[in-house]
Amino acid sequence: xxxxxxxxxxxxxxxxxxxxxxxxxxxxxxxxxxxxxxxxxxxxxxxxxxxxxxxxxxxxxxxxxxxxxxxxxxxxxxxxxxxxxxxxxxxxxxxxxxxxxxxxxxxxxxxxxxxxxxxxxxxxxxxxxxxxxxxxxxxxxxxxxxxxxxxxxxxxxxxxxxxxxxxxxxxxxxxxxxxxxxxxxxxxxxxxxxxxxxxxxxxxxxxxxxxxxxxxxxxxxxxxxxxxxxxxxxxxxxxxxxxxxxxxxxxxxxxxxxxxxxxxxxxxxxxxxxxxxxxxxxxxxxxxxxxxxxxxxxxxxxxxxxxxxxxxxxxxxxxxxxxxxxxxxxxxxxxxxxxxxxxxxxxxx
Length: 349
Hints:
There is one protein chain. This protein has 349 residues and is α+β, with helices and mostly antiparallel strands. Among the domains are: 2-96, no CATH class; 215-349, Heat Shock Protein 90. It has helices spanning 2-16, 19-47, 52-92, 108-174, 180-207, 210-214, 217-229, 249-270, 299-306, 313-323, and strands at residues 235-239, 274-281, 285-292, 327-332, 338-345. It has a five-stranded mixed β-sheet with strand order 1-2-3-5-4, covered by helices on one side. The protein is elongated and about 140 Å long.
């Protein structure tokens, strides 16, 4: 009965030792047992006048046994570090929840380290939630400001330019044919105003496309792609369901902004000749794929330089997808074009 009580107590005391103390104690026992055992065996073999090969055999067996025992002791002592490494690997891929995790049967140093690591994870997760909430507020405020500016430009500046065009045309028509110089200046001013009104409408459409609110995601993407890419000489191919159920507004807006950023990059940077846009809907998710045959780029290099150079395009796409629990995958290599895949879950209103 005393032995049953003794061994658990001994095991608990051993678990309280640090890794260094465990390895030092184990190696000391091996040296002590090996020295005493080796001395006794060597003396016995010498008295018996044993063959030299028998002495070598016993020495080899003793050395091998010492190495095996030492390896087992080191492995057992370092097991908490292996468990800690596994926990860190799981944290790296996001598989550890916010509940505290501790290394079982660990020495005090590893226990304290696991507690500190867990506290760091919780703090990082808390900061991530705060940053996500802040990012959501910033994006929502940005959309509201875009909507306000677009409405103001359309109702005020747009109407003013329209009236200016009408008045210039009326003045041009009322002038006698002999006033050719003045008529030319009025015509030039009217054409300039017409051009400014067209550019203003493009700005309003980029800020807040009315088609997105009235007709939905697919017509808005189709209209934006054709008006911007075809104007730049880029062929556009669009595959999307013609009839689809209405989508929640946050999802529709996020996917449109992702497509808008990707198409703007096609015009500015890709030097592509053709772009294909595919929108498909599964049971519980939507997938938007935008692929071009342009010059491509090094994703890792551009991603690392984005924050330093304050190039927020790709970062903004991922951020918008993350706010609706989706993800954006960017596949590109120099000379092989670019493929952007946005997958988002279908949200309830």
